[in-house]
Design a protein that fits this description.
It is built from no helices and eleven strands. With 121 residues, the protein is mostly beta strands.
């Protein structure tokens, strides 16, 4: 059974940094393609960062230059380093995984439960 578990969310002031982590367990089909999504109150789920099995990354315009996605392939753990946080980054952050690279589309097969990030001004 594939499980994704996010951690590291919390509260920050505008301009500060946070790092969220996603631990993958039970995935037996090699290394999955992975992505980070977020969902703000009253809004839809938004893809913000993704990485393939060779380290190629992609970002949404809203976070490009501020957020960095990375992966420890040996430990099957995904990270999102968030710098220069803004109040509009406040959302529930989810990681997702699949054997197909869906880029930033919310079509991944496996999802975590999410971790809350709150940024105050």
């Amino acid at each position: 059974q594939v499980q994704l578990a996010e951690s590291g969310g919390g509260s920050a002031q505008a301009g500060e940094s946070l790092r969220v982590t996603c631990a993958v367990s039970g995935y037996t089909d090699g290394n999955p393609y992975m992505a980070w999504f977020r969902q703000a109150p009253g809004k839809g789920r938004e893809g913000i960062a993704t990485v393939d099995n060779h380290g190629t990354t992609g970002y949404a315009e809203a976070v490009k230059g501020r957020f960095t996605i990375s992966k420890d392939y040996a430990k099957n753990t995904l990270f999102l380093q968030m710098n220069s946080l803004k109040p509009e980054d406040t959302a529930m952050y989810y990681c997702a995984a699949d054997r197909i690279w869906w880029w930033l589309l919310p079509k991944y097969a496996y999802w975590g439960q999410g971790t809350l990030v709150t940024v105050s001004s």
